[in-house]
Amino acid sequence: MTMAHLSSNDDEMTFQVAAQNLPPELLLMVLKQWLGQHRIVIDGSAHPHYTLSYSNPENIDPFATISRTSDAPSFIFQEYFRSRIRSWLTDAKEFSDPTTFYMSHLLMSLKMKDRIGWYYLPNQPWDAICQDPALSLSTKFPVINDHGAQYARMKHLSSLHGLEKIKLDFTAEQYFAMFDVAIPPFHYRDGAVAGDSLYRDEFCHGAGHFLLHTKELELHFGDAYKQANAWYDVQEAAWCETNPAWNYAEARLRPHVCDSGLVIDWILEYAWYGGYLQHIKTTTLTGDVQPWVREKWYDIFKRHAMYLEEHPALYYRIFAVHEPDPIDLETIGIDDEDEDEQDEAWRPQNHYPPACRCEVGCWRLRGGRVEEELEVKSWNEIERFSDEVVGDWMSGVVLGSL
Ligand SMILES: [Zn+2]
What we know:
With about 400 residues, the protein is α/β, with parallel strands linked by helices. The chain contains 15 helices and nine strands. Helices cover about 35% and strands about 10% of the residues.
């Protein structure tokens, strides 16, 4: 029997049978398992009236099942309420779409502000939402809008707002927008360039600001991130031109992009430059991330945490241990120009997206694992080649423009 394909009827049976047969301590474990993984959902279909809920999409109304289980012992009801509230307050909240991420934070800040605190947002485009007098938020259990009611139920967790721990699982484009990555051609805002299709959601740009009250952050670079490089959908002519010097079609389709290395490093450089991460106690990088990126940034996070410990003031220098240089990232290739050679105009599409030079190629990092190199059929073949070609057998191999 596979757990993943249980229908809701099977779920009910499982829980009902369990409730009738298991001793209490095992039944509590079943309850926890059966309630499953929850997600924040924002229903804005009745705009400007929003509903915030935290539920398991596979098990929308567990209470109905429990209350229909006539033999359910009463402690199960109590434990059900307790464990759902605790889960809302203490779980890491995972977001795979930016809208749910920023709207949940914004709405809680505006309508439950005794909980999460303020954000300092620019007028554009936020005033349209923030200043709307009709804006309203209702919440569904276990999100309790009434401050007093929540505190009465969970005194020891009363200082929590529920969004302390955040996991983001975004695409490359979404991370670029969120942390204001401005390498070419992303230094243009949406709509500034005709025919351009950079990330369209105006609200997502700079949305990293909504991490202001986050204490633990996981940035995940998984399937969503790896599905396409951030340049893939760029429509600007320069990235769609073919170049006879290249053995691939267009710059935006460049193979072997350093997406698990340089590109993640750049996302973090801009996130640091924007001051989006410095207040967060613990930041982890998961998914397909090159070891050198993890080492570099875990070292920065650690040194910054030590600096904060030594300077426990309200105001601190965000670049105390590391100061990003965005100009350096936005002009890669300019410094390399040979003065003696004929001056050729700098073409950013020759340098972005960046080709991979990592020890283990970024294209081999998938699903948190290192994939086999497909080009080479067997180890014997490598040995045979290296026997035949003595010396620098990589000379003459064109790796693409760098
Ligand atoms: Zn790489």
